[in-house]
Amino acid sequence: MSGKRRYVLDASVIVSALLFEQSIPGQAFQTAHCQGEILLSNDVIAELASVLTRKKFDRYLTQDEREEFLQTLVRESTILEITEPVQACRDPKDDKYLALAVNGQAACLITGDRDLLTLVSYRGIPILTPGQFVGEPPTQPVAATIDQ
Fold it and tell me: How far apart are CA 134 and CA 17, in angstroms?
């Protein structure tokens, strides 16, 4: 394992960072990318691939630009195989982020998802909003919603 700090960002933070580079999620993404390594799993990559095909993002970026972003993200991130599944979140779809954080020994999990944020931490891994991660006061929206 490298000496870099490892970070898990949920899909909403990553998509918000892509769409709005100067946003708080964009700053969190850049900070995590520059100061450490971003962790991904096959489940997280699959969710990102699905989300990035949604028509509602057509007004921001072409499908090719979104695919290129995902390919670059995968190439520049650390992909982990999940050997220890987790079932701890009130929304089971979010367990993949907790599992990734635990399996990757992440420094923190960065999310705008209330189902994850309500946990505050999991197995000693802090669960932070993008604003908390970059030290911004919580006065701006955390992340764009990626539902439907």
Answer: 13
**pLDDT-based confidence at 142, cuts 50/70/90?**
very low
- At 108-128, the pLDDT tens digits run 999 999 999 999 999 999 999
Going through 11-139 in order, the beta strands assigned E by DSSP cover 36-41, 78-80, 108-110, 121-122, 125-128
How far is residue 104 from each of residues 8, 47, 52, measured CA to CA in Å? 9, 18, 24
Identify which of 145, 143, 147 has the alpha carbon closest to the alpha carbon of residue 129: 143
Question: Model-level pTM?
Answer: 0.89
Closest C-alpha among 105, 137, 136, 139 to residue 122: 105
- In the chain the domains, ranked by start, together with CATH numbers, are 5-134 (3.40.50.1010)
Angle in degrees, 0-180, between the axes of helices 11-19 and 42-51, rounded to the nearest 10: 50
Q: How confident is the model at residue 3 (pLDDT cuts 50, 70, 90)?
A: confident
3-state helix, strand, coil in the chain (%, to 5): 45, 15, 40
Identify the residue whose tokens are 């979010």: 94
